[in-house]
Amino acid sequence: MDKILEVKNLHVDFDTYNGVVHAIRGVDFHLNAGETLAIVGESGSGKSITVRSILQLLAKNGTISQGEVLYHGDDLLQRSDKEMDKLRGNKISMIFQDPMTSLDPTMTIGKQVAEPLLIHNNVSKKDALKRAEEVLRLVGIPNPKARMNDYPHQFSGGQRQRIVIAIAIVNYPEILIADEPTTALDVTVQAQIIDLLKELQQKIGTSIIFITHDLGVVAGIADRVAVMYAGRLVEYGSVNDVFYNPQHPYTWGLLDSMPTLDTSESDRLNSIPGTPPNLLNPPKGDAFAPRNAYAMAIDEEEQPPFFKVSKHHYAATWLLHPDAPKVTPPASILKRYEKFKTLGGNVENV
C-alpha cells in the first residue's frame, strides 16, 4: 500500500512556568492510502498533540523540537504558515473533539460548511452553498436545504458532530484526522458516527487517523492500531494483533479495563494502578515501569526498543527480549486470544 503520510522521530516540547514538558518523545508511524489508523491511550498520553503537530496547530508555548512529517515525501514541518493554510481544511482536515466549541454560534450552518470551499477553491458563493447542502445530506442531516439557515443551537449533539464532519470533508480531503469525535456522545450516536465515517471513507476515499481513549470504538473502524503512553508509542499492529494478541503490559491493562459482551453486571472492571509519569522529568527507563506488575530491573534503566512480534506487529517491552522470563498475561487477555483462535481468527466473529 502507498504511504501518504509518515511521521518520523517526532519530539514536541512545551515551555511552562515549571519547566519544559517533553510531551512527545520520538514518535514514528505512517498512514497508508485508504486506511484507518487508530491512535489509542489514556488522556494525556500525547495523542492529540501528535496529530495537531501534523497540521502545526500547537499552542504558542509548544515547539516541534525534532522530527519530520512527510506528506507524499514533502516535510510539512518545513512549510510556512501560509503554505500550511492552503493545506489545512483542504488536503488534510481535522474533526475536533467538541462540536459545541468547533461551530460558530453566530453563523448559519450552511455558511460554516461552505466556508472551506470559498477559502480553498475558486467557486461562487451560490455553488459553495449548493455543495454544502449536498455534503449535509451526505452526512445524514434531515431536510438539509431548509436547515442550511439554522444555527448550531438548533441541532442535537449528534447532529452537530455530523455538521463538524461535513465541514471537514467538504473539500474531499486526502487525510481526515478525527480527534475523539465520539467522546461526548451516547453509545447509540457513537455507533452512528463510526458508521458514517466508514461510509464516507468508502465514498470519498479518504485516509483516516482516528484518535480515541476508548478501545471499544477502535474495533469498529480501524485497520491498524497504535497504542500510546507518556508521549511514545508502545505497541502497534493490525486490529487483530492488538486486540487479540497484545504484547505490551499497558495494552493488557487497557483491554482488561474494557467491558465485553461476556461482562455481567456483577463483574468488576480492572483499572491500571498508579498514574502516568511527570514529563517535566521523563524517566530514563520504561515510563510504564512503575505501573507494570511485570516490570524487571532493566525497565528502570533503559527504554525498551521495539521487538518484532509478527510481520506488522511490534511492541516496545523488555518482556519480548529472548532472555526475559516468560510471564502469563491476565486471564481476560488469554480468554480473548483463545476465543479469537476458536472462531477461526476472524475479527468479525468476536
TrEMBL record:
One of its GO terms (biological process) is peptide transport. Residues 5-255 form the ABC transporter domain. GO terms for molecular function: ATP binding; ATP hydrolysis activity. It is found in: Cell membrane. One of its GO terms (cellular component) is plasma membrane. It is a peripheral membrane protein. Coiled coil: none annotated. It holds the Pfam family oligo_HPY. The keyword Ribosomal protein does not apply. It comes from the Bacteria. SUPFAM superfamilies: P-loop containing nucleoside triphosphate hydrolases. Keywords: ATP-binding, Cell membrane, Membrane, Nucleotide-binding, Transport. Belongs to the ABC transporter superfamily. This is ABC transporter ATP-binding protein.
